[in-house]
Design a protein that fits this description.
about 400 residues, mainly alpha, globular, disordered C terminus
């Protein structure tokens, strides 16, 4: 996708979220909780950070397929952009649907559904590994000679559109909802009410759901999250939890065919010799959400630290490769510490202090000694990576029962 276009949307995202927070506070709607919203944003920054690296694989795969094209389509003209829009939206529907119906794909997509709130911050709670799972769905377009820039721009437009539909403030929109995806549709998609599960997969258009029998109206209050709550603010664990679930199931089930089925069957499927977890009826008034009490000074620190981290990530599309290699591990380390501080882990403050020291040293080394790309740049890259790897086992340690 066009990371530049997404990065340019950051100020708009922040302003809209701030406006919704103020409206929620004024109307006493309780749409936001500090730790949940900050974790949503942290997942988004992590997604864009990882995307700066994995996105190159998608481009390389597309270029490879494009070199084998059977024809060449023009890069300009209204019809090519309209065709690109329809193709991207159609492909998004099927990628999204399969990401709910195939366990391995769900392991990547689940991050976007883990929040127990529903607000504009949730729109930015993006997964890290779907930069890879998108690739096979778009390669056919390369084989027919479709221009990369048309595809990438339409993918970014789809993501930008879907930001505003993550809200409970806008209730219904009348005839607009007959054709286009709207907040009502997407609330249903994020809900864990049994009748709402696996519905409304559309990106910009809702017509695909109507055509393929996955459409559902909002008829009762939505309860959000996943059927098995994550109960953690750890962004690394958020991206790993379903992989751990599959590994555990594959290890515990006795039959080899079932050990393999775990990976490609529906997330709702369980091997016959393991406990099943059918959807349970939920009542919004009785739901107890996972939360952690935080002192005001810690909230201030985390807010400032996150804004600095977000600014660093936003600079990646415009940075040199050496800067990216040095900045990426520092950004991921900051996100690791953010989750640990929200959960007030005993090692969190020490890890944050070391991270700050390494960041200051890396900035100094990078600005004063690394003019020739020599040993100083090696330190800039190697030290954060080494310390990140040292603390990573703490990040992915099992946080709660699955």
């Amino acid at each position: 996708m066009d990371l530049h276009l997404i990065a340019l949307g950051y100020p708009f995202f922040v302003l809209r979220i701030v406006a919704e927070v103020l409206w929620s506070h004024r109307q006493r709607l309780g749409l936001y909780r500090f730790a949940d919203a900050l974790t949503d944003l942290a997942c988004g920054v992590g997604s864009q950070t990882v995307g700066a690296m994995l996105g190159a694989l998608g481009v390389a795969a597309y270029v490879w397929a494009y070199d084998l094209r059977v024809t060449t389509l023009p890069e300009t003209g209204a019809w090519i952009w309209l065709l690109g829009f329809l193709y991207v939206d159609f492909v998004f529907y099927w990628w999204h649907r399969w990401s709910h119906e195939v366990h391995t794909l769900w392991a990547g997509h689940v991050v976007h559904h883990q929040s127990e709130d529903y607000n504009l911050a949730v729109a930015l709670r993006q997964e890290w590994l779907t930069h890879l799972t998108h690739i096979p769905f778009y390669l056919p377009l390369a084989f027919v000679g479709f221009p990369w820039q048309v595809l990438a721009t339409n993918v970014s437009i789809s993501l930008l559109y879907q930001f505003w539909i993550h809200t409970e403030v806008i209730r219904r929109m009348g005839p607009y909802e007959w054709v286009f995806n709207a907040p009502m549709h997407h609330r249903v998609h994020h809900a864990i009410n049994p009748q709402y599960l696996d519905k409304n997969y559309g990106g910009i258009l809702i017509v695909w759901d109507r055509l393929f029998a996955t459409y559902q109206e909002e008829v009762e209050p939505c309860v959000y999250g996943t059927t098995t709550p994550i109960a953690s603010w750890n962004t690394f664990w958020a991206n790993w939890i379903v992989w751990q679930t599959m590994l555990t199931a594959a290890k515990q089930t006795a039959k080899w065919p079932d050990k393999l089925r775990v990976w490609w069957k529906s997330p709702a499927w369980s091997p016959p010799d393991l406990p099943a977890h059918p959807p349970q009826k939920v009542d919004r008034a009785k739901v107890v959400k996972y939360d952690t009490p935080l002192p005001t000074r810690l909230k201030i620190w985390l807010s400032v630290a996150f804004l600095v981290t977000m600014a660093a990530q936003a600079s990646l599309p415009h940075a040199t490769s050496m800067f990216v290699l040095g900045a990426v591990p520092l950004i991921l380390w900051a996100l690791l510490n953010l989750g640990a501080l929200l959960e007030q882990k005993p090692w969190a403050k020490a890890s944050e202090a070391v991270r700050l020291g390494v960041t200051i040293a890396a900035c100094y080394v990078g600005s004063t000694l690394a003019t020739d790309g020599g040993f100083a740049w090696l330190l800039l890259v190697a030290i954060p990576f080494a310390l990140l790897l040292l603390t990573l086992p703490l990040a992915t340690r099992r946080q709660a029962s699955l």
